[in-house]
Amino acid sequence: MERRKRIGLIAHDARKADLLDWATTHSARLAVHELWATGTTGGMIADRLGLSIKRLKSGPLGGDQQMGALIAEGGLDALIFFSDPMSAMPHDVDVKALVRLSTVYNIVMACNRTTADFVISSPLFDAEYAPRDTDYASYLERVVPGSSR
Comparing C-alpha atoms, which of 27, 28, 15, 46 is closest to residue 113? Predict the structure, then answer.
């Protein structure tokens, strides 16, 4: 993992203001990293803070899956995802998939402001870091005998 991190930003509607406030507080630190965000969240942060953000589609329109694909392809180092635990969402399975992919691919994931504060204030945030790879060879062998992928 390079010093310049690739960071995904997502917030549910009820948490967008909180993520914007968090990003405002940490805009100087975020500005030196590569930022990705789902549509509405990315537009809101870019417009308010002037940060360069690569915008994906809106979450319910496929942006969550695009973010998941970035994780699976090794394109993100961290995901800051302010989810709303009090609202039922029709795309709840997409949310669960992002949590799962972040775990499978061993990337940093913060689902609330306190965790995001701890992550961004870590000395590792702006440093090179070598995460331990998770070996899924035994899983793949169990699921697809003879597979080397």
Answer: 15
What pairs with residue 108 in β-bridges?
Answer: 78
Sheet holding 53-55, edge to edge: 53-55, 34-37, 6-11, 78-82, 108-110
* Residue 135 is among the residues annotated as catalytic for this protein: no
Q: What is the pLDDT of residues 67-113, one digit of tens each?
A: 999 999 999 999 999 988 887 766 678 888 999 999 999 999 999 99
Domains (ranges, CATH) in the chain?
A: 6-143 (3.40.50.1380)
Instruction: State the pTM of this model.
Output: 0.90
Catalytic site residue from 21, 64, 77, 117 = 64
